[in-house]
Amino acid sequence: MLQAFVITLREGLEAFLIVAISLAYLRKSGRSELAKAVHWGIVVAVVTSAAGGYLLFNAANQEWLEGPLALVAAVSVLTLTVHMWRAGRQIKGEIEGHLKSSAQRAGVAALTGVFLFTLLMIGREGVETALLLMQLHATPNLATGAAIGVLAAASVAWVWSRFGHRLNLGLFFQTTAIFLFVFVVQLLIQGVHETSEQGYLPFSAAIHDATESWGPDSGFGHLLTYLLVILPFGWLLFRGLTSSFKAHKAVPQHSSAR
User: Fold this and answer.
1) How many CB atoms lie within 10 A of CB 245?
2) How many alpha carbons fall within 13 Å on the CB side of residue 172?
3) What are phi and psi of 216, to 5 degrees?
4) Which DSSP string do the residues of 210-223 spell out, in sequence order?
5) In whole angstroms, what is the distance from residue 227 CA to residue 235 CA?
6) How far apart are CA 100 and CA 114, in angstroms?
7) What is the pTM of this model?
8) Which of these, 41, 201, 13, 47, lies nearest to 115 by C-alpha position?
9) Which of 83, 112, 250, 59 has its CA nearest to residue 177?
């Protein structure tokens, strides 16, 4: 449940922020007529992601797909997480820059550009969410955790839209990135194990036997589960302590008069 919550919280927040920033930029730049392209992009992206997720969860040959899809999800999460770690603070500028190039066109070209931009950005989050949640299909209370994550993401996005200067998005993305890094390790182990079980890899039998003891019920698997919680909270504590130390150092020390 915790994994589903964090996944939908992070992916949902990215999606909500993309929408909020896009609509705000179009209003600010005097191109409010292009907002309908954003709305249609959202609808098509959600429908496409939901259809893709349904097909994945109900695939007849799911055991054959489980390993390769876990590896695809791991690579996708790793690359996007690294990007968000480095560019989390600049997310607003990046989105506005892409929108600016699309909105500068005239007529149908501008509508098409904004629509495709929204479709690709939101669709990417939706497909990634479906891939990640598929790896947790046997997790108890999966739907509950995912739903709570979406609601939390919507709440954070609303707070950001109202009080953006008070919300440290960079720290948020860094903290959830640490969680996802550990989850990527779990996905890689699962993906390699399942893929070797299907005989897709060279030396599949040896790889399958070697990774058998790394499963979720092993000591190493339990350690990764604990690290999913310990490392993000440890990072928050570290950043809080370093921020307090810097703030203390920044306060001028007045020597007492003699």
Assistant:
1) 10
2) 21
3) -65, -20
4) HHHTTSTTSHHHHH
5) 12
6) 9
7) 0.65
8) 41
9) 83
2 in Cβ contact with 228 (< 8 Å): yes
Give every CB contact of residue 66 below 8 A, 6+ residues apart in sequence: 134, 135, 190, 194
Total residues belonging to the chain? 258
Q: For the CA atoms of the chain, what is the radius of gyration?
A: 22
Neighbours of 150 (CB within 10 A): 19
CA neighbor of 174 nearest in space, from 233, 251, 112: 233
Tell which residue, 57, 58, 235, has the closest CA to residue 133. 57
Q: Which amino acid is at 165?
A: H
- Higher-confidence residue of 62 and 202: namely 202
Residue 247: CB atoms within 10 Å: 9
61: phi then psi, degrees, rounded to nearest 5: -105, 45
Asked whether 76 and 128 are in contact (CB, 8 A), the reply is yes
Give 29's contacts (C-beta < 8 A, 6+ positions apart): 100, 103
The top-scoring range by mean pLDDT among 42-51, 187-196, 220-229 is 42-51
The CB density around residue 95, as the number of other CB atoms within 10 Å, is 20
HSE value, Cβ hemisphere, 13 Å, CA-based, for 14: 30
Q: What is the pLDDT of residues 135-162, one digit of tens each?
A: 777 677 788 888 898 898 888 777 776 6
- Sign for the pseudo-dihedral over CA of 88, 92, 93, 98: positive
